[in-house]
Model the fold of this input.
Amino acid sequence: MKHVYQLVTFALLSVFVSSQIRADEGMYPISEIAGLNLSQKGLQLTALEVFNPNATCLIDGICRVNGCTGSFVSPEGLIITNHHCAYRAIQSASSTQNDYLKDGFQAKTRETEIPAAGYTVRVTESFSDVSKPVLNVVKADMSFVDRSKAISRKRKLLEKQAEVDNPGMRAEVAEMFTGKTYVLFLYTYIKDVRLVFAPPSSIGNFGGDVDNWEWPRHTGDFSFMRAYVAPDGSTADYSTDNVPYKPKRFIQVARQGANEGDYVMLLGYPGRTARHKTSSFLSFEQDIRLPYIVDLYGRQITTMEKASQDDRAVALKLLSRIKSLANTEKRSRGQLKGLTRAKIVAKRSAEEQKLQAFIDADPARKAKYGHLLDSIDAVYQRMSETAAEEANFQNLRITSQLLRMAFTIYDAAQERQKPDLERESAYMERNFSQTVSRLKMIQKDLDLSVDQSLLAQLINQMQNDEMKVTELDGISLNDLYEKTKLQDPAFLQACLASDVEQLNANTDPFMQLIVKLYPRYLELRESSKAREGQLGLYYGELITVKQQFLDTNFVPDANGTLRLTFGTVRGYSPEDAVYKSPATTLSGVVAKTTGIAPFITPEKVLEMSAKQDFGPYLHPKLKDIPIAILYDTDTTGGNSGSPILNGKGELVGVNFDRAFEATINDFAWNTEYSRSIGVDIRYVLWITDKVYGAKHLIKEMGLN
Done:
C-alpha cells in the first residue's frame, strides 16, 4: 500500500532544506536527499535510488525495531540490528537453564526462532504535511492547556482516520518543528517479531558499561531477528501459521566492509535532539535534570547490581533494566561534561543576544517577537523552582515497578471512561494491547526485595529534600510488599477488568496507595500540558524569526522519524597530543580480555584468533579481523542498529554508539569530536559464520 498519502509539499520542504548544506552536520528528513549533492561526497547511487516516492528504493530496506533501527538483509524478513536492541528479547527468553544472554542463541530452523514479546517492526510507507489541519484547531483565546489538548486530539484524530483508511497499517503524526510543522507518517506495522541469532553478551556487550560511550571499542553489538506476517501478508499477532515478511527491498551485505576515508551514510530513526532549544533549556538540563538523573540512576544501578551478583535468576530479571539505566546515566555524565567543556550554554546565550538585537531593531518585529526569549526563559525558571519535587514525585511511580503497575491500572480505568480521542494515548483502543503487554513484561521481571529497596531509597531522598507527601504518612513498606498481590498474573488481569469504583474498593495496598496519590499525578499532568502548549507556541514563533535573522532554514530536530546522515570513516583527537584511529581489531579484543567481567571472551573466539582462522573476513591492510569503526556522521539515540552503508548502498557495518565526547550531539554537533561507532560487518560475519557456524544465515544473505 505504497504512497497512500500525498508527499510533503514544497512549502514544507523549504522549512527543511538549508540554503547552505553542510556535509558535516544534519539528520536530514528523507525528502531532502535530492538537495544534498551526495554524489560529490562519494554516493554512487542516484538520489531516487535512495528515496523514490513512486518506486521501490533503498529506504524500503530500513525498518524501525521498537526504539531502534534495523535493516532487512534477506528477502525473507531477516533483520540485523544491535545486540542491545534485541537485549530485552534475549533476556525474556532466557532462564537459568537456557541462559541465552550468557551463552548466545541460534535458531537453526525457522521453527526454533523465539518470539520476541513486546517487539514491533515499522517500515515507512508514506508521509504528508498536516501542519495546517493540526494548527487550525488552535484558537487565539485558548489557554495553554487547551491549546496542547486541542493539538493532541487533532493528531490522534488524523492517526485514527489514516488507520481506518489503511487497515493493518500504523499512522503517526510527528511534530517536526515544535509548535510549527507536523507530518503524518504511515507505516507497515509488524507485530510478530522473532529472535534468530544473538552472540553471547561477552561478545555483544564486551566491555560492558566500562567501555560504553568510549573509543576504542571492541564490542560485537549485533543480533538477527525476523519479521513475520499472516499468510495473506497482513499484520498479525504471533502465530505458528505466520510466514516471513517479504520486504520490497533488502540491503545487500558487503563482505569487504569499510576502510578509513571511505564515504558512509546511515539511514535510521534517531530519537530526540534539542539543537533548536534555547540557552534557558540548556541551563535547566545542565544544572538540574542531568545531575538528578546521574545521582538517581547511579544509586539504583548499584542496588540492582548488588542484588544480581550472587543470584543469576535475579540477574536475569534485572539485567535489561540495569543496562538501560546505565546507558542513560553514562550518557548524561557525558552530556554534562560536554555542556560545560564546550561552554554550550554561553554560546547559545550569545547567539540569542544577537537574535534579540535583530528583533529589537525593527518595531514590527519587536512588537511580535520581542517577548519570546524572556517568555521561554520564564517557563524554564518556573520549572526549575519545582523541579526537585516534580522529579521525585514522578520517579516514585517509575522507580517502584509495583507502583508503576498500580498507576497504569488505575489510570487506564479512569481514562477508558472517556471517548477514545480524549484519552491519554497509551489507553486508546489502538494502543491499549501494547500497554497491557508492557505491564505483563514488568510483572514477569519483578523482584519484590529489590523493588522495596529502590522505593525505600527514593522515599528517603524525598525526606532529605524536605518534600512532604502526606499520602505516604503511616505507610509501612513491609506491609505494602507482604500484602500485595500485584505479582500474581490472575490478580493483574482482574484489576485490568475492574472499573474505577471497583479499584477504589480494592484492598491491595499498592492500589490503595495509588488511589491516594492519583490526584497529585493528575495535577502534574495538567501542568505539563500547560508547559507543552506554552512552549509549543513560543518555539514555533522562535523558529520563524530565527529564519528571518539568519536568512536560512534549518534541519528539524530528530524526532524518531526516518532520517539520513552521511560522512566518512575518520579518527579524531579528543585532547591535546592524542589521536584515535578509526578501527579496532580482534587482537585488541584478545589484549583486553582478562577473564573477569566485562572483559570475558568466549574460548572459541580466542582459539580461532590464535589459529588466525579468519576465512574471507580478514582486513587486507590490518591483517586482522576488524571489530569496530569510527565515522563522523551525525547520530543520536534511535540510530542504534542503523545500517552503515557504503557509496553503493551496501551494508558495511551496524551503528551502535557514539564516542563519549559525542554524547553532546543531542544539544550541539562539532566536526572535531562528534564521532559515531559501529560494528564492522566483517566481525559480524566472522562471528556468525566461522565462530558459531550459522552458515544458513550467511547463505540467506547471499554470501556463501
